[in-house]
Amino acid sequence: MRLTDIGIRSLAIPAKGQKTYVDDTLPGFGVRVSQGGAKSFVVTYGARRQLKTLGRYPDKSLKDARNEARVILGSGQV
After folding, report:
1. CATH number, domain at 46?
2. What is the pLDDT of residue 76?
3. Residue 73: strand, helix, or coil
4. Bridge partner residues of 29 (DSSP)
């Protein structure tokens, strides 16, 4: 799915645990939704597939999180 502000606001909350919705336009970038309803931007990077949380939505904008993920994915660093 292509992540948008409207799409993020309407993401389903899982009954238990967490669910990650991956952005089709930037592989490795996504939004993780917890059973409590918290939504956080995440990026999976590197050969070991490390997961880094970039910030919570809506405190961090989608645009800022996507730009930060591009930097991390492009450089291979945090």
Report:
1. 3.30.160.390
2. 61
3. helix
4. 43
pLDDT in tens, 7-39: 999 999 999 999 999 999 999 999 999 999 999
Supply the range of the domain harboring residue 41: 5-75
- Count of domains forming the chain: 1
Asked, as a colleague might, if the bond just before 14 is cis with ω within 30 of 0, I would say no
Q: Report the predicted TM-score, pTM, of the whole model to 2 decimal places.
A: 0.91
Burial of residue 10 (number of CB atoms within 10 Å: 0-12, 13-18, 19+): exposed
CA–CA separation, 61 and 8 (whole Å): 11
17-24 — which CB contacts under 8 Å span 24+ positions?
23/66
Query: Dihedral sign, CA of 59, 62, 64, 68?
Result: positive
Percent of the chain with pLDDT over 70: 96
